[in-house]
Specification:
By secondary structure, the chain is mainly beta. It is built from two helices and 26 strands. The chain has helices at residues 4-27, 387-391; strands at 40-49, 52-60, 71-79, 85-93, 100-102, 107-112, 115-124, 133-140, 148-149, 170-174, 177-184, 187-192, 205-206, 214-221, 224-231, 236-242, 250-256, 268-272, 275-282, 294-299, 327-328, 337-340, 351-355, 361-364, 370-374, 378-381. Bound molecules: beta-L-arabinofuranose.
Length: 399
């Protein structure tokens, strides 16, 4: 019989170490919130390009005693799985714009005509009628830059029908036509842009949406346009919907409640690999607060009628996107879609939803072995050769 001594010295530590191994494996399956802990990040903008999730953030540099924003540059991060993030550092700063004096407030990056356009709010060196902010744009061939400022700002305090605080740009490309939204202190505006992305194409219009404060963001799901924004100060996040980018907007409700340690609540909403995400900032890092914020991410979920459920904020963040090297053999069946079914967060669960299959659509496993033949629309449980295979990285399949 095993002695008491041996049990305590060998068996118990062994069992405990197994528990911890399991715990750390599970911990790695979530992004954690806040996402970045070495600097204070704010005003997130999310962009998906080439199976990669890019996050563009502002950078709070205020000391713990300061009571204004101190922001000089914008940073870029990227991930393929929502858990392993690459920090690409500062890619643009306010003073890159020859006409700007500083204050790197919220920015927004969008892709158009094969280029990446980074719209930013910064203070103008000379033009000041209201608060002196202006919206300019820099351009690059890749989300990571290098970004080149494109000349004069698109919006200044002198722009007809602009507002007191011209900040928080958000650009949405609607059927090939770019629209610039922006706004703060209760005023929201929109204007069509020319295809060159650097000039206005028409007059600035007022956007009417209930309880707007700042930080507009447009996304679309199905045929519905969603306009989300910070509401009140301190801010919650609310949203309205429309069947047109030009409105009218119908108020729908609150997405995110007040934050405990940050007066602003600046959101981005985006779909990535079949999951919807709500990106925002809080003051949750040690020493954090209204002028020392940190970007977080949580799941965004819809009700069946398309309304958005209130976000449940978490400290664990979002689960890793587990991808496999499952291959879909495309023959003549071009109209096939296979997506990961975001049904649960179990570590090894490989359910695929197959839409519009051909008469016999084969799926291959990691080793290239025909694993299953799909004949009709539905949910398929795809079992990789081993669980480890299922956790290895590979291309996400969506056709
Ligand atoms: O970060 C400076 C300003 O605070 C942003 O432009 C607003 O959206 C708010 O988050």
């Amino acid at each position: 019989m095993m002695g008491k001594h041996l049990f305590g010295k060998v068996v118990v530590p062994f069992i405990l170490s197994l528990c911890f191994m399991n715990l750390s494996a599970q911990e790695k399956m979530y992004s954690g919130n806040p996402l970045f802990k070495d600097i204070f990040t704010a005003d997130p903008c999310a962009l998906v390009h080439s199976d990669t999730f890019y996050l563009f953030t502002g950078h709070d540099e205020q000391t713990s005693f300061g009571n204004t924003f101190l922001m000089r540059d914008w940073h870029v991060y990227s991930t393929a799985d929502m858990v392993n993030w690459t920090d690409h550092g500062a890619k643009l700063k306010a003073t890159d714009f020859s006409w700007a004096s500083g204050n790197a407030f919220a920015g927004h990056v969008t892709e158009h005509n094969g280029k990446f356009w980074w719209y930013v709010s910064v203070t103008h060196k000379h033009i000041r009628v209201g608060e002196g902010f202006a919206i300019g744009v820099a351009v690059a061939d890749h989300p990571l830059g290098p970004y080149e400022p494109t000349g004069e700002p698109l919006i200044t305090d002198n722009t007809l029908n602009s507002i007191t605080l011209n900040i928080d740009p958000a650009v949405y490309i609607d059927n090939g036509i770019p629209w610039l939204f922006w706004g703060s202190w209760g005023d929201a505006r929109m204007v069509k842009l020319k295809n060159n992305m650097t000039e206005l194409d028409g007059s600035v219009k007022t956007v009417n949406t209930r309880d707007f404060f700042e930080a507009p963001w447009i996304h679309k799901k199905g045929d519905v346009y969603y306009l989300s924004y910070a509401s009140g100060y301190p801010s919650t996040t609310k949203y309205s919907t429309s069947n047109s980018i030009e409105g009218p907007w119908t108020y729908q409700g609150i997405i995110n409640d007040l934050l405990p340690n940050s007066e602003t609540n600046h959101q981005a909403i985006i779909e990535f690999k079949g999951n919807w995400y709500f990106v925002y900032h809080n003051g949750g890092l040690d020493g954090g607060g209204t002028y020392r914020r940190s970007v977080c991410i949580d799941k965004l979920e819809y009700n069946i009628d398309g309304t958005i459920k209130k976000v449940i904020r978490t400290s664990k963040g979002v689960p890793a996107i587990i991808t496999t090297n499952v291959k879909l053999q495309i023959g003549t069946e071009n109209n096939i879609e296979i997506t990961r079914q975001p049904l649960s967060e179990r570590m090894v669960k490989l359910d695929y939803y197959v839409k519009n299959p051909g008469p016999t659509t084969p799926i291959y496993n990691l080793l290239g072995i025909r694993n299953k033949t799909v004949k009709s629309t539905g949910l398929y449980i795809f079992t990789p050769k081993t669980e480890a295979d299922g956790l290895s990285k590979g291309a996400f399949i969506k056709r």
